[in-house]
Amino acid sequence: DVWKALKDIDRGINAGSVRLIYSQKDVPSEPKGTFDTWNREHTWPKSLGVGKSGPDYTDIHHLFPSDASVNTARSNRYFDTCTDQSVCRPPSALQDNENINGDDVALFGGDVFQPPKGVRGDIARAIFYMDLRYPDLELTDCPDNEDPKNQMAYLSTLLTWHELDPPTEMERLRNDRVCSRWQGNRNPFVDYPDLA
Questions:
Q1: What is the pTM assigned to this prediction?
Q2: Which of 21, 109, 122, 143 could covalently link to 148 via disulfide, CB atoms 3.0 to 4.6 Å apart?
Q3: Are the beta carbons of 116 and 104 closer than 8 angstroms?
Q4: Diameter of the chain by CA atoms?
Q5: Calpha distance 101→27 (Å, rounded)
């Protein structure tokens, strides 16, 4: 069960909590799955090729706990640097956080979503994994805006994020747990960052 897996591999510091990917804060692991709690963030959106069944839908290497409202704000936006400050803003759930500012907060606007600086590499490696693991998915710098089915962007931005935010001990531990406890495979971009 994916919910159980996420509670295990992304558990927070306190018992019965999970660490949310975009805010990096711990919340109770129960309840879950509602707009007021946390849900599963598909880093490669369902609407861009993952679908609602099959191994790519439940592949834990690209699933993370997320504040439901932040996940909604992310929607199926491409990952990129949010450059237009007149359009880009933090999701409502993060706007009042006094401890987060600038690069440390998720931003979205137009067709892009920018994760906080400390998890950009994690997101990049999850997307690289999906592109490698599932041949029908394509990571590109030039998505077909008319019909972006099965495409995710932006490769060059994700490569930069991967270089600037290398795998941490926490990300390596997550990779170990996914392999040994849940899924039986590894994200090679965490183990061997030079593959990207």
A1: 0.92
A2: 143
A3: yes
A4: 46
A5: 20
